[in-house]
Structure prediction request, 616 residues.
Amino acid sequence: MSVMFDRVAFIGMGLIGSSLARVIRRDGLANEISAAARTTETLDTIQRLGLADQVSTDTADVVRGADLVILCTPLSAFGKIAAAIGPHLKDGAIVTDVGSAKACVQREVGPHMPKGVHLVPGHPVAGTEHSGPEHGFAELFLDRWCVLTPAPDTDRDAVAKVRALWEAAGMSVSEMTTSHHDQILAITSHLPHVISYSIVDTAYQLGEDLQDEVFRYSGGGFRDFTRIAASDPIMWRDILIENRDAVLDILSRFDEDLTNLKRAIRRGDGEELERVFTRTRAIRRGIIEAGQEKLEDQKVSTKSSDKG
Amino acid sequence: MSVMFDRVAFIGMGLIGSSLARVIRRDGLANEISAAARTTETLDTIQRLGLADQVSTDTADVVRGADLVILCTPLSAFGKIAAAIGPHLKDGAIVTDVGSAKACVQREVGPHMPKGVHLVPGHPVAGTEHSGPEHGFAELFLDRWCVLTPAPDTDRDAVAKVRALWEAAGMSVSEMTTSHHDQILAITSHLPHVISYSIVDTAYQLGEDLQDEVFRYSGGGFRDFTRIAASDPIMWRDILIENRDAVLDILSRFDEDLTNLKRAIRRGDGEELERVFTRTRAIRRGIIEAGQEKLEDQKVSTKSSDKG
Prediction:
């Protein structure tokens, strides 16, 4: 790979940012990487891992002279960061992000971008339940999808450059409107997280007496939820609040569907249960065909129990 | 291992039954295995796999002379099977099962057991989302828990024999009352299944236009639910109906906890969300400490996305 950017600035460098920095280092995609973080502890880790040439707690310092600025903090910090870096961005710079909700990026970052700076919001749909720069790895993005949500009048060259970066990381890249992104991700990611947090909290609230037994018999399905519910609390607090309209909308639909199942269970309506449980299998096949379930995941999945 | 039973009869031989039959064959735990199934197709598969010495669609044929009879069909068939085999059971025979709800076994099988026959209901908490005898494997039970729920006056020798069989399969075995079992499993397994079926059905009902995109971006959490929601529809129809009281009770609690989260999202109450999302992490640690998350699962879990 050849150099794509002279200088890339990361604002925040957790799991996603550090994984992308590793890709940039591995393939020599930038001459220089700078990184800002809130704590000197994180900056020390970033330096120890060799992920940045220059680090600072001052975001303005870090973006000066950068061709590409990538926001990798929790979403609630975006507005403040945009206000702080706006005046220091170089003419022609591209600003992108990795946030899991997109309408809020346009809304909170957009107004602070000076003329001549290109905002290209992005969302690499990849991750693990671990957080922090020490848990990143360059292969995180392989064969996953990245969504870009530029406004219609955005400079196409800027969009192409951000696209090329994620493609270099191994992702397929698609473009859509912010509202479409926020609806789709509300279903495929935000809803599963709310539900997982909720179900694990239900178990938590049963009290310590029952918890040991819940751990012991977690192989029957519960265990999978606990992994999702171990995700970064701050990141998820922000995603759910920033994308609240789409999340609440899909939660209402989920409520209706769950009520239907509850009613069938209460009435002993086996036909309805069988009908629903049969059609949900088709979705699984679709996921496997779409290549979003890897062979190795499938292999291990046979060890993960689904037996009552 | 030495021979534990002269003759073991399986009524139904799907994933669980065939896995146990493989253990019995591997370790020579029985001199003879007989198996009944509803269809000759399944019986052919069982014979082709060498999992039984004698097969029949007639359950009475299969249990004659058996020391141990294991019910491995969906729960809704138990009452009818018990009535059919009762008169043909040998004096001193042990009858057990692998069903995921236990009060119903006592209720539906118990009355058909002649004096001198020992009913020891059991539940090996292990499985995969695949069903059928061809998907079984002897290692399925390794390091998982099996729950036995004998009535207080059950012959202790009979309980000890069933315990020894599951221990030979690599399981830890515990005993508890049927109602306690049904409550615990409602939380750790039945609730996760209802929720997974429901969430995947919500996506299904969005229509085909959106489904392709749901597949594509499923890595954000949804994918894990689709695996659970691909479980055997008949088996799960029966579990939820047979254990409906405990399932509906835990669903009400879940409803309350989800309503609390929805309210926090709607109000933008980040503190409450952060508080809940932080305490759910503790549950994950408990599961890992209880040894119910294997190292290989953990390794692969880093490839399974939890990013919004």
Summary: Confidence is low (pLDDT under 50) at residues 295-306 of chain B. Strands of chain B lie at 5-11, 30-36, 54-56, 68-71, 94-97, 118-120, 122-124, 145-148, 172-175. Residues 221 and 306 of chain B are 5 Å apart (CA to CA).
